Amino acid sequence: MTKLLEWLCFLLVYFVTWLLVLTKYINLNISDEWNSFVVYFPVYTVFLVGIYSLIVVLWRVYSFNDCPEAAKELQQQIKAAREDLKLKGLRI
Q1: Looking at the whole model, is its pTM more than 0.85?
Q2: CA distance 89 to 83
Q3: What pLDDT score was predicted for residue 60?
Q4: Buried/exposed code over 62-88 (b: 16+ C-beta within 10 A; e: otherwise)
């Protein structure tokens, strides 16, 4: 099962469960105050997933390691490529 299929199955189960609770096909005996929470539950979920994603991206950017050896190697490869292109008559 691919990751896309896993996510689509999860979203389908989530949406169907939410729809069944919203239409009161599944009776949870909740008050009207909590019923308004159920109505907007997907919005809250999207908001929380967005916050989680933002935190993960920021943490990974913060903890990203520098690679000075790889930078030197890349600069040497760029220099070699420029010299090779000059030999072939291309001006940079």
Answers
A1: no
A2: 10
A3: 94
A4: eeeeeeeeeeeeeeeeeeeeeeeeeee
